[in-house]
Write a structure and sequence with these properties.
Elements: H1 2-9, H2 13-21, H3 27-35, H4 39-52, H5 58-99
Helix pairs in contact: 1-2, 2-4, 4-5
Length: about 100
Amino acid sequence: MRKAEWNFRNGRYDESADLYARTKASFEEIALKFIDINKMSLKSYLCTKLATLDASDEAQITMLVLWIIQLFLSQIHLAGEDDVIGGNVAAVEGSKSVQS
């Protein structure tokens, strides 16, 4: 757990997420650490945690899968917004060059 904490303090969030997921640390506490700092590392933490669960932990598995799906959907949505914004910028710049 010390190594996970050290990695987190030093901005090595992916390594920290992987290590935290393999500990018995409070799920809620660790998820809250990542939720505002690094969503990609949160997703990594959740995926690794999911892999460590026993098949009989159906409620936890369901919760983690739904959260992971929500993070993927959010990432897709944000990527779509970037495409729209980037496309609008390109269209505006293209119309400026045509007017010149």
